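Secreted protein
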Amino acid sequence: MRIAVLAAGLSALALAGTGIGIAAAEPATAVRDCAGASRTEPGEIVLTCADGNSAVRDLHWVHWGSERAEGTGTAEIATCEPDCATGGVRARPVRITLDTPRDGVFTRAVLDGRDSYELPANR
């Protein structure tokens, strides 16, 4: 038994330098922040970069894949009442889904399966 384990380990080491039988990890799909930096599993996502009035904070990710990411957090969304410049912000717990990947970057955020925000791949 010990010899079989040792032989398997040595075979893996021998193949490591050749690239045979070793699959490279697929790069993770990311989300861009307002400065254009790519992030995976960020702690917060600003949904409206123009004014920064809407964001999801305290994010906890339960799934992060190449086609979609799912998590929970606290949405802080501008009420825009009486207008967006002077209105307040409403906070609520949400489920967030990131999807519609393009060029390795998620381009859409959906809150609670209904409120959709475009996340441009090139900010």
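thats it. Residues 26-118 form one domain. Residues 4-16 have pLDDT under 50 and may be disordered. bye
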